[in-house]
Amino acid sequence: MSTDLDWLYARQRVGIHPGLTRVRALLQRLGDPQQAFRAVLVGGTNGKGSTSATLASMLTAGGQRTGLFTSPHLTHFQERFLVDGQELPEATVLAALGRVRPLAEGLEASFFEIVVALGCVLFAEAGVELAVMEVGLGGRLDATNALEPVLSVITSVGLDHTDLLGHTHEAIATEKAGILRTGRPAVTGVAAALWPLLDRRGADLWALDREAQLEARPLGWSGWEVRLRSPGGLLSFQTPLLGEHGARNAALAALAAQRLGLDEAAIATGARTVRWPGRMERLSWQGREVLLDGAHNPDGAAALSAALQALAVPPLPFVFGSAADKDVAGVVEQLRPVMASVILTRAQLSPRAADPASLAPLFQVPVQLAGSPQEALGLLPPGLSVACGSLYLIGELRPLLLGEAAGTRERWQ
């Protein structure tokens, strides 16, 4: 057991403290490792993880040594730091954390600030040429924004984390636009109404449905065939990402890859070979099939619902659990057309998780309560089911489905 990792997880309880002063100071004390590689920042309410993973896959296919920083992890901490699609050895991650810890303690850095700095150290030491960095919360004051990106990506803007980011799409978009840099390339998939707000930042911005036109043909459970026309030329490729939102996120990654100078072959190979666990991921388990998805806010739930309807599946049994601070009523409303019944449970490692019994009145389908994710799986009927509502829940269900070791530490972030 790592005492350094125990210490880091304990920092989760300090909470979220937006601002760049501490993380910049920490990076400086570490010798500014972020200057050893180029960086792309990927922000947005939904879709930033799959867009980041797809872009990183494309860069690796193009021959660049590529880092991918994402959060939160599903099951194991080292999932947050991939190099060319592979987790770094746990010993490597823990050794670097041991060097970061004393400097971080002196600055009283937050959990996420430490994790960002750790990622920069790991990528620098691994010889990464370009790192795709998923923004944590918002953008303007997120710790990842201490890096100077060569390209910025804003996937979408929805109403989530409104207590910290604002209660309107415009207010949240303003926070996310903080990752844009004047005169530097940027791409976005946000709604047209928000384009003027982003344009005012002065970045060299290409937007899906404006500079870039997307056509997507569904391939059922195999994903999508995508055609993208932009000032960078015409691209055609396939992606295994499910749902119309999956096709759109893959197209946004391809647009970013174009702006980074990748050729069509690398873009097509990277799009075809991307893996993004726990998001529209279909797994077999004891004669059943479970579709895992990270939908935890109304926009994410709407995308999941649309994807299931497009796949022409009947209403399905669900396993559902949520953090207590989410708009669960809004999520349930979006899932209603595709939900036949629900098993309510909670992530065992997340103190933020809502009591399953408290969620039951929100559902208008048959409800069962399960005391744990394992118990919930045991209640599933034969055939296909869906599990969603909390990434922490998905992170506990996934190793059960795969027969792998599960995490053991408390999860706040």
UniProtKB/TrEMBL annotation:
Pfam families: Mur_ligase_C, Mur_ligase_M
GO terms of molecular function: ATP binding; dihydrofolate synthase activity; metal ion binding; tetrahydrofolylpolyglutamate synthase activity
Entry-linked InterPro entries: Folylpolyglutamate_synth, Folylpolyglutamate_synth_CS, Mur-like_cat_sf, Mur_ligase_C, Mur_ligase_C_dom_sf, Mur_ligase_cen
Domain spans labelled Mur ligase central: 42-257
PROSITE patterns reported for this sequence: FOLYLPOLYGLU_SYNT_1
Enzyme class: ligase
This enzyme's EC code(s): 6.3.2.17
GO cellular component terms, semicolon-separated: cytoplasm
Mur ligase C-terminal domain segment(s): 278-376
Catalytic activity, as annotated: (6S)-5,6,7,8-tetrahydrofolyl-(gamma-L-Glu)(n) + L-glutamate + ATP = (6S)-5,6,7,8-tetrahydrofolyl-(gamma-L-Glu)(n+1) + ADP + phosphate + H(+)
Keywords attached to this entry: ATP-binding, Ligase, Magnesium, Metal-binding, Nucleotide-binding
Family: Belongs to the folylpolyglutamate synthase family.
Record's protein name: tetrahydrofolate synthase
Native source organism of the sequence: Deinococcus sonorensis KR-87
